[in-house]
Amino acid sequence: MGVEGIGARVARKEDKRFLTGKGRYTDDMVVSGMKYAVFVRSPHAHATIRSIDATSAKSMAGVIDVLDGKQLLADGIGNLICGWMIHSKDGSPMRMGAWRPLAHETVRYVGDAVAIVVADSVAQARDAAEAVVVDYETLPVVTDTLQALGEGEPQIHPEAPGNLIFDWELGDAGAADQAIAAAAHVTELKIINNRLSPNAMEPRATLGIYDAGDDHFTCYTTSQNPHLARLVMSAFYNVAPENKLRVIAPDVGGGFGSKIFIYPEEIVCLWASKRTGVPVKWTADRTEAFLTDAHGRDHVSTVKMAFDSSNRITALKVDTIANLGAYMSLFSSCVPTYLYATLLSGQYAIPAIHANVRTVYTNTAPVDAYRGAGRPEATYLLERTIETAARELGVSPAKLRRINFIRTFPPSDACDHELRCGRLRSVAQGGAMEAADWDGFAARKAEAERRGNETRHRHELLYRSLRTGAFRRRRFARCRRRPVGIGRGQGQRGRHHRGDDRLAQPRPGARDDLRPGGCGAFRRADRQRQHRPWRYGQGADGHGNLWFPLRRRRHVGRLQGARQGRGQGEKRLRPT
């Protein structure tokens, strides 16, 4: 009998259309009279806008109109908001700077939009966008998280002196300090959780449609939460009353949090549709995505973890500075606070915890929720500290974790996070460690190092042969990829077309289980459809087969063609 109820596998219904290429994304939407938008973006991280001259751009072929931030402001479109109020430990509210959908006075990061060009085609809109002349006066810049709080650093927003947004705390500082002072051992760390940029399969896109007859707006958008988008755009941004705004989210094409916010482009395209009288569609290219999609992480933390003589954790004290970028995005304030600090105890019994979080503005892209949103940052900090403490104490990391696992439920959680049940020790020792063959780890590591040395030796032979011209004279045995990993799990690759777990879609033929006992290989399904950075080619002697990188393959192809006098080697080995 299979599992029923909670935990049962739910059959997917959407696989067929994705496997047969019938998915429908926002960029696939086409309506009558639709025009295309391109945004004019700041090349400077910090500058004031002296003037915008769109005269030449408006006279170019196919251009419908060029609109800027002053027109947007005159039509009453509101600022973008942060949806979660945080108060500092002194009771003062967070200091939220103004974020205009189109900047009209100051740009604060590279990619900040200042104008929108609407034209008959994307190419015409791009040409016109390059013809828009923006006169900037550059200002001093601060991009480093720690540097932002320094004296004399550039001021990002007048509302936030010293670039500090809020100074927030959770837990009992006195109890934590007392336990640290009395500890037998204290592990101290500085941990940098670096900034990252999301990269969904389908870039963000939006199609704004205004129906003048019914005074009604329709927005097609790559949103993970269209209901929230409708609410916020009507209630806070003054785009339209909620009963006159419809938001449709077709297939999203990946998100993992980066498409759950309301971005300036959605607001501006709806507004531009009403101003120009035509449907307006915008689709980001990869450069725009890297510049303007909300980034993630970017924490700098100092940690103190105290232990008694029995290696039990007695206290944890964390001081974190979180970089929120140039503006506060929709959920940015809750990510480094209630979604982060409340998880710092993890699965461990820690009697005293204190977390202090300061958030800062910098001249960088806004930071918000991405893949776990605060929870991964807390887990990484906690487990990294446990690993370091185990080395300092001279004990096994697994043993140190077992000693400090929660034993009684509900525990007295210093982070106000209630856990009601769990079998941490039995699952870790009797399930996970046995399945992973924990005791055989050292042997597998040594074997992996040996195999890695062999592979590096083969690559070195290939490199030397290419440089010395001995490639024709050598025959290389087939050098297949061999796994260097030390784990015994066998993974299957799949993909998600959304940023959540409701519509997961594997490749054709892939199994969706992850079971122990494999050989450490990563099995791939449908090899004809996937991109492989390594390809199977033919040696210059026509016999020896080997694997080699794309860059080297092109070099071999040119060498082949030159020696054979046909110039066909590169063409024959060109990637498909």
Written description of the protein model:
It is built from 14 helices and 21 strands. The protein has helices at 15-19, 55-58, 69-74, 122-131, 173-181, 226-235, 264-276, 286-292, 375-393, 397-404, 424-435, 441-468, 550-564, 569-572, and strands spanning 35-41, 47-53, 63-68, 106-107, 113-119, 133-138, 164-171, 185-196, 205-211, 216-221, 245-248, 280-283, 296-307, 313-323, 352-360, 491-492, 494-496, 504-506, 522-523, 534-538, 545-549. The strands form six sheets. A seven-stranded mixed sheet has the order 3-5-1-12-9-10-11, with helices on both faces. The chain is globular, with a radius of gyration of 28 Å.
Task: Supply database-style keywords.
five-stranded mixed sheet; 14 helices; seven-stranded mixed sheet
- Strand content is 15-25%
Give the spatial strand order of the biggest sheet.
3-5-1-12-9-10-11
Structure classification: alpha+beta
Quaternary organisation? single chain
Computed CA radius of gyration, to the nearest angstrom:
28 Å
pLDDT averaged residue by residue:
82
Question: How is the secondary structure organized here?
Answer:
Blueprint: H1 15-19, E1 35-41, E2 47-53, H2 55-58, E3 63-68, H3 69-74, E4 106-107, E5 113-119, H4 122-131, E6 133-138, E7 164-171, H5 173-181, E8 185-196, E9 205-211, E10 216-221, H6 226-235, E11 245-248, H7 264-276, E12 280-283, H8 286-292, E13 296-307, E14 313-323, E15 352-360, H9 375-393, H10 397-404, H11 424-435, H12 441-468, E16 491-492, E17 494-496, E18 504-506, E19 522-523, E20 534-538, E21 545-549, H13 550-564, H14 569-572
Parallel strand pairs: 1-12, 10-11, 14-15, 16-19
Antiparallel strand pairs: 1-5, 2-4, 2-6, 3-5, 7-15, 8-13, 9-10, 9-12, 13-14, 17-18, 20-21
